[in-house]
């Protein structure tokens, strides 16, 4: 089945005899997708736009050759083993080129500064792929700090001590009550100026602090969903509060918070696109740059969307696997 | 004074304990009880009479509002007392078992000795298997609590408490959540524990157990301790009119 419901509720009346029915609905779903796809296609035919998907490729995998230029005037010698030596007139140490796929000069030729000597075929990451890597880097590092911040804020939030309780409350309310974009500007321009933060650090800080507030609420509700008898049993065995939290409460809470946590982490990946406003070349900013260079606007944004989707769906698949693994004690 | 220095006869001294909950519910009124080493004391009384509250003051799951509690010679509210150290010596078994659902049966029993007493894993594991075999669950050491019946879960809970080698065991209606056919297996374990000389305070509705195993039976009502007697006299010749009424209502 294509998209099988994960839990079949008996009271919804989904029974064996309805299997045939299901196949019909699934087929209808695929058919609808095809119709929508066709509609989009014909709509795009009507507008005056030439689709040029092949233009995107160089921005994903850059296969333009690496070229070598002469820095000064000199003379070229092609050696027997295929390497090239360039002796410069001004006495600079000679340039040795070990590998060349294309040669633009001949043996013994005199060349001038700036002349192209040779090139090597190569494949390197295109701008979009570099942007994707930056987005992954931003997300992973922010995720790490967001979970730490979230855990600390959650523990402070449920603590008996009003000082830490109030601080955590204030933090969560302020962060959840203001737009991320504004927070990014404040971190970059205000904190960034005071503490001399580079863009990347500022971006990570804003994303971690923002996501941390949401994770704190998720962890707090996870902890509070554990029956109080668990803490009582742990404490009555002589465990102190941190030990009971670490080995009894948090492992159980963690399991329950996985589904909302997955949603929050997916949000983090998507929210990371906002840091492009402080000139971090993430996937979104890379997209904007490529549009400016290639004029293949539609293709670029569809590609960018697809790359985000690959990231988020990989993450949600991974979390589903963890969930399944942890469910063996139920 | 440490637990090792104390050789006195009294395991539990509760001196005129008062408990008023945050909602102003006066759950305990001047309750004074002494339990001697090796004694089994059963507490009975109607619902809401304060039995659980009293039991929970004995390991400070509830703090007292007024009065004094001394466990194995250690004054609970003395500023120098570490409550965690005191609790290591007091095992507790709950009505709802409260096993750790994310851990296997064996790990439930091993967790506290490992993390609190910081004993070696091999030693703790050997002891856990011994205890689980003793409560009749030697075959089930690697399953999760959710795969056990209520009676089996409660026996694991008893083994888990015993793993800390406590000198005092508290039971709060250990059989009330069980199907009738499983009550016997849990009471059997408790009886063998009593025979080995464990000091026990048991809140229960099992009058047969009280009559057979208890050294003394206490009757509580409305936060007050009304009767403290040997079982024979307690059941056959009740000394308080409220107890007489209570016994006739349940028998
Ligand atoms: N955490 C609490 N906060 C406020 N009031 C409480 C709390 N726990 C118990 N009480 C109240 O204290 C009184 C004594 O309760 P307790 O649970 O000790 O009774 P019990 O004798 O154990 O009853 P049962 O047989 O139903 O278990 C009751 O009136 C109860 O409502
Ligand atoms: Mg009770």
Describe the 3D structure.
The complex is a heterodimer of chains A (330) and B (251). With 330 residues, chain A is of the alpha+beta class. Chain A is built from 10 helices and 9 strands. In chain A, the strands form 3 sheets. A 4-stranded antiparallel β-sheet of chain A has the order 5-4-3-7, with no helix packed on it. In chain A, strands 2-8-6 form a 3-stranded antiparallel β-sheet, with no helix packed on it. A two-stranded antiparallel ribbon of chain A has the order 1-9. The N terminus of chain A is likely disordered. Chain B is built from 9 helices and 10 strands. In chain B, the strands form 2 sheets. A 6-stranded mixed β-sheet of chain B has the order 6-7-8-3-9-10, sandwiched between helices. A 4-stranded antiparallel β-sheet of chain B has the order 2-1-4-5, with helices on one face. The longest helix of chain B is centred in the C-terminal third of the chain and has 16 residues. In chain B, helix 3 packs across helix 4 and helix 4 crosses helix 5. The radius of gyration of chain B is 18 Å and the shape is globular. The complex binds adenosine-5'-triphosphate and magnesium ion. The site of adenosine-5'-triphosphate has 12 residues of chain B, from helix 1. Magnesium ion (MG) binds next to helix 1 of chain B.
């Amino acid at each position: 089945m294509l998209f099988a419901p994960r839990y079949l509720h008996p009271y919804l009346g989904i029974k064996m005899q309805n299997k045939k029915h299901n196949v019909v609905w699934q087929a209808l779903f695929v058919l609808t997708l095809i119709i929508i796809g066709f509609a989009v296609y014909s709509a795009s035919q009507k507008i005056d736009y030439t689709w040029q998907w092949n233009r995107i490729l160089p921005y994903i995998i850059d296969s333009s050759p690496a070229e070598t230029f002469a820095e000064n005037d000199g003379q070229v010698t092609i050696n027997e083993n295929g390497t090239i030596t360039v002796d410069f007139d001004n006495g600079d140490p000679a340039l040795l080129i070990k590998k060349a796929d294309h040669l633009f000069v001949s043996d013994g030729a005199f060349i001038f500064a700036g002349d192209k000597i040779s090139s090597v075929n190569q494949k390197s990451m295109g701008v979009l792929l570099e942007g994707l890597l930056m987005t992954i880097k931003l997300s992973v590092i922010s995720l790490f700090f967001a979970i730490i911040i979230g855990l600390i804020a959650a523990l402070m939030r449920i603590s008996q001590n009003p000082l830490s309780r109030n601080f955590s409350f204030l933090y969560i309310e302020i962060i959840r009550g203001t737009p991320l974009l504004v927070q990014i500007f404040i971190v970059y321009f205000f904190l960034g100026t005071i503490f001399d933060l580079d863009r990347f650090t500022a971006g990570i800080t804003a994303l971690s602090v923002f996501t941390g507030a949401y994770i704190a609420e998720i962890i707090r509700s996870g902890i509070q969903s554990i029956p109080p008898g668990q803490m009582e049993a742990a404490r009555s065995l002589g465990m102190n509060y941190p030990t009971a939290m670490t080995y009894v409460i948090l492992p159980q809470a963690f399991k329950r918070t996985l589904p909302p946590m997955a949603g929050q982490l997916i949000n983090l990946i998507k929210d990371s696109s906002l840091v492009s406003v402080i000139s971090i070349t993430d996937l979104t900013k890379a997209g904007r740059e490529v549009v400016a260079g290639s004029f293949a606007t539609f293709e670029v944004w569809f590609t960018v969307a697809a790359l985000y989707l690959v990231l988020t769906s990989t993450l949600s698949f991974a979390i589903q696997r963890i969930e399944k693994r942890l469910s063996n004690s139920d | 004074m440490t637990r090792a220095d104390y050789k006195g006869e009294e395991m539990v001294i509760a001196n005129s304990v008062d408990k008023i909950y945050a909602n102003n519910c006066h759950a305990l009124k001047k309750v004074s009880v002494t339990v001697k080493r090796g004694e089994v004391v059963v507490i009975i009384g109607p619902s809401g009479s304060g039995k659980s509250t009293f039991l929970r003051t004995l390991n400070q799951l509830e703090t007292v509002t007024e009065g004094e509690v001394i466990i194995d010679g250690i004054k609970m509210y003395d500023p120098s007392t570490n409550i965690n150290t005191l609790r290591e010596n007091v095992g507790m078994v709950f009505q709802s078992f409260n096993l750790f659902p994310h851990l296997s049966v064996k790990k439930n029993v091993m967790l506290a000795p490992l993390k609190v007493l910081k004993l070696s894993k091999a030693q703790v594991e050997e002891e856990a298997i011994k205890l689980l075999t003793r409560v009749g669950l030697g075959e089930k050491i690697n399953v999760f609590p959710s795969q056990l019946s209520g009676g089996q879960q409660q026996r694991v809970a008893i083994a888990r408490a015993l793993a800390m080698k406590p000198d005092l065991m508290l039971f709060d209606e250990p059989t009330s959540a069980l199907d009738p056919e499983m009550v016997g297996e849990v009471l059997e374990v408790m009886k063998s524990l009593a025979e080995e000389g464990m000091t026990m305070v048991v809140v229960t509705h099992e009058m047969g157990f009280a009559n057979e195993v208890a050294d003394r039976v206490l009757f509580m009502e409305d936060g007050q301790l009304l009767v403290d007697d040997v079982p024979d006299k307690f059941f056959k010749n009740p000394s308080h009119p409220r107890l007489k009424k209570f016994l006739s209502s349940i028998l």
